[in-house]
Amino acid sequence: MKVVIIGAGVVGASIARVLSQYEGLEIHLLEKNADAGLGVSKANTSILHPGHEDEPDKYPLRAKLCIKGNRLWYQWTKELGIPAKWPGELMIAVEEEDMKVAEHYLELAQRNGVPGVRLVDHDELLKLEPNANPNAAGALWAPTAGLLSATMAAPALVENAVENGVRFHPETEVTGIKIEKGEVKGVETNRGFIEADIVINAAGLYSDKISKMAGIDYFTVHPRKGEYFIFDDDAEPKVTKIVHQTPTPITKGVYVITELNGGLMIGPTAQDLPEDAKEDTSTTREGLEFVWEWAQKLIKELPPRSMVIRTFAGLRPEPPDGRWIIDAYDDPWGFINAAGIRSPGFTSAPAIAYYIVEELIQGKLEIKLTRKSHWNPYRRALFFKSLPPEKQNELIKKNPAYGRVVCMCRGITEGDILDVINRMKRMGVKTITLDGIKMRTWPMVMAGTCQGSYCRIRIANIIARETGTPLWKVTLKGKGTEYGIGDIKVLLKEGVKENAE
Ligand SMILES: Cc1cc2nc3c(=O)[nH]c(=O)nc-3n(C[C@H](O)[C@H](O)[C@H](O)COP(=O)(O)OP(=O)(O)OC[C@H]3O[C@@H](n4cnc5c(N)ncnc54)[C@H](O)[C@@H]3O)c2cc1C
């Protein structure tokens, strides 16, 4: 049986990994970008939510799959070597009356079965988080909240799925879906036709467009923007817990977190954009001011603005009424939607994948699947920086590239970069990009104090050398994002040649 999954974000990649556990399937994972995880899954808060923020009556799937996904990530991050931590989360009641809101979420935690959630008073709040606002009334404490390296997740999932037999097709854009006699037959792409008995739509912001191609057009997905600040690694104070405030009609929550990389991050906003603004990841003065104002209410003081090293924005794929569209259809038979997966979509992705395979493919479509006797859940992840000194020495003796530091801020070596390039090639990535390298190194290159001003050119040079690409053609994230560095005369000459063609 042939299965096509459209979109290698965290949702499509999780579905590919879960399906790779079954026998007799030819699984194709299609992605229009040069790499996995360059869509919505790249820019978000990266919180593994405990599962107490969704009303089970209003959002049954979100309520059920978030708590399950949170626990699955506990296992998956270990199997796949994705950096993660589990600091727990404080929903802070800034004013006394906000405690009533916190009580509402305590009740939701009980209804959804989230373990360990309880109210804490002012004193316990400050004991749990000494950098919290010293005037806050109290908080709701949820100990099972975690953080993961969101950028690494989708590439890691795909790498593991490919090791288990999935075929990854980057730079492959789906342009149509072939349907005959009420059944899906395959997908049209910029690289030709791919046959399929089952087509799963996990196309994030574009999942409404893909659904329309299959004739299912009862919904649209619009972008909801979230803007952030990131501070330098040594900016203080740093919170030890995930901190946000009780939701209000104006905001569901600005968070203050200490990223796994080490820096403080504050955000996001939640601004609805028109349907056609699916690529608008610009930051705005108003959005950033809003974040600053709310974050100030949560902790005792923010670091000075001069310590901000980056601002960025992500776009949530927002379905019409907040309800995820996850379903299999009779007409066309074989088409499955995992559409409009807004927050807590990251947390829930592994559970969404099991839901699709168990409840929809095996349940609703009545396709019997048999588990493979041998399936490898593990991904080898080698991070030189995390090794003890004696292991580092051993590695340098075997391969001197590990002795050449490329990224000064984060201590990433040429050996790390070469390892990543080899892994990308094995996974099926056709164009080795700067972002692809960034997403797979740990701690992340080009993301420290210098934001790549020291290491980017060095990494671009390694990519050029290892792939035989002219330096100026090395891209940030695929065609159209050429970094444009190198010999300016070559750049002009090549530019003239291309224009003449
Ligand atoms: C600001 C913000 C904060 C968030 N915070 C959190 C959080 O803290 N915790 C949490 O759980 N969730 C969070 N989320 C939600 C989470 O990020 C998303 O639910 C999740 O990443 C959606 O993944 P996806 O795979 O559906 O979409 P994507 O990652 O966008 O993947 C879809 C893929 O489909 C590809 N594609 C599209 N069209 C085509 C086509 N025609 N052919 C081939 N490929 C195609 C795209 O290129 C893309 O790579 C946040 C989201 C945002 C924006």
Q: Short description, anyone?
A:
The protein has 501 residues and is an alpha+beta fold. It has 13 helices and 23 strands. The strands form five sheets. Strands 5, 6, 7, 14, 15, 16, 17, 18 and 19 form a nine-stranded mixed sheet that branches. It has a six-stranded mixed sheet with strand order 9-2-1-13-21-20. A three-stranded antiparallel sheet has the order 3-8-4.
Percentage of residues in strands: 15-25%
Poorly predicted tracts of residues: none
The CATH topology of the largest domain is given as FAD/NAD(P)-binding domain
Please state the structural category: alpha+beta
CATH class descriptor name of the largest domain = Alpha Beta
Rg, rounded, reads: 23 Å
Number of helices: 13
Tell me about the largest β-sheet.
9 strands, mixed
Q: What would you say the CATH architecture of the largest domain is?
A: 3-Layer(bba) Sandwich
Overall mean pLDDT: 95
Distance from N terminus to C terminus (CA atoms, Å) equals 43 Å
CATH homologous superfamily grouping of the largest domain = FAD/NAD(P)-binding domain
